[in-house]
Design brief:
With about 120 residues, this protein is mainly α. It has a domain of about 80 residues. The protein has a two-stranded antiparallel ribbon with strand order 1-2. About 40% of the residues are buried.
Length: about 120
Amino acid sequence: MGDETSQAKAADALVRDILLHARDLVAQGWCQGTSAASRDGRRVDPWDPNAARWSAIGALIAVWARWRTGGNHLAILAFQRGNIALLAAIDDIPQTWNDAPGRTLDDVLSAFERAAQLV
């Protein structure tokens, strides 16, 4: 039983990490209207090396993609749980919520922190 508890705590920590890494990406550059954009504003995939700005869900996808290629077999589970926590924190579809008129960078950063607290 103790082993299951420690595994659950480790899994929760991984989910919080993915959420906080996604928050850090958004803090570096945030966008609306697409999941990711290059420095010159072109739409790119969230995992594209040219991505310089991310939406809330784009940042989560970008972190998952980086962790996945690093051989972290738990990355997809962390992404799924992180996405659910983000959904719970904002009570909306992440891209729709991110793109809403009047949405601010601070709103998005706060949502990631709330999601990490929910884990």
